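This part of the workshop introduces the protein records we will be handling. To make this concrete, we reproduce a full record directly below.
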Amino acid sequence: MNKGDVQLKEFTNAKILALFLALILVIASGCSSSSSNEETGNTGSSSDDSGSNEETFTITLAHSGPSEGTGIQEALLKLKNEIEEKSDGRIKFELYPNGQLGGEREVLEGVQNGNITATFTTTGVAGNFVPEMEIFDIPFVLESKEQARHAIREGGPVLEKLGPKFEEKGLKLLGFGDEGFRVLSTKDLPVKSVEDLKGLKVRTQESSNHIDAWNALETNPTPIPFPELYTALQQGTVDAQETPFEIIAMSKLYEVQKYAIDMKMVYQYFPIMMNLEFYQSLPDDLKAIVDDCFSEALQNAIAFTDERDEEYVKTLEDNGVEVSEITGEGLKPFREKAQPIVLKNVREKIGDELVDLYLEEASSK
C-alpha cells in the first residue's frame, strides 16, 4: 500500500469515528431531556405556550363512619363528582369509609403526617391532636341544635380562633358539620335517672374528657374504636354506647341494643381536616375550589341529617328499640356530676379565654 492510500484510509476512519461520536452525543442529549421531564413530573402534553403542564392532585379522604346512608357520606359522594368536575380533572378524589384505613385516631395521625390527605372525626378524638377542641367535650352545655350551630357558625369568633390552632398541628380546618346530640343506647337498662348509670359498661370515644365524664357518672367507660363497636356490643365487652340517632340507625346498632336515651350530654360536631402541607401546595384556584366544595358538602350533610331525624328514630322503634328523652330539670343531677370535672380539666389545659367564649356563644342563642 502506497503513502496516498494510507492517508486516504486514515482520513476515512477519522471521519467515521467523528460521525459515530456525534451520533452518541445526540442520543445522550435525548435521554437526558427525557430523564429531566420524568424527574420533574412533566410527562403530559403542555397546556400553554410556556410548555409547562397543569399538575394534578389526589385527595384521599378516609373516615370511620358507615359507607352509606349518613348525611356526611352522601355529601362526600356528591363532593367527589363536583370537585373533580369543577377542577377539570386536576383534582382526583378517593373516598375510604367504614374504617378501611383505620380508626379515627389512626386516620387522623395519617392526615397529620401526610399519608392520608383528609378526614373528619368526632371532636373527642380531634382533641387529642388540637387541645382547644376539648371545649366541645364539656358535657351538658347545649340543649338544642340552634344553640350548637350558633356557637360554631362560620365567621363566628369560636371558629376564627380554632383555625390557627389546627395549622399549628399541621392540619387545615375546612369546616364543621354535625349529626345532632349523641344518644346513649343500652342493651338491658332504660336509663331514667343518674342512679341507673351506676356500673354500666359504656363504650366511649378515645378521649380522656369523655372517660372522666362517664367515670363521674359512676359507669365503667371503655374506649373502643368505632369499627369495633358492633362486635364489642354483640359480645358483651360493653353493654352501652353513645352516638347520634343517625349512626345507631345506619350502623344497625339496634340489632344489639334495646333502649335509646336522648340525654343531650355531648353534641356531635365533626371537623373536616386536611393535611396543611398538601393544602398549601395547591394553586390558588384549586384552593378556592376545595374551600367551596367542602363548605357546600358540610351544609349538605347537615341538611340531609335534619331531613331524616324522624326517620332514624322510626327505624330504631321499628326494630324494637324503646326511645326516650331526658330534658330540663331531669338533666340537672347528670350535669352536676359530670360537668365540673371536665370543665376544670379543659380550663387547666387551654386556659379560660376560649372556654368562656364558647360557653358565652352557646348560651346567647
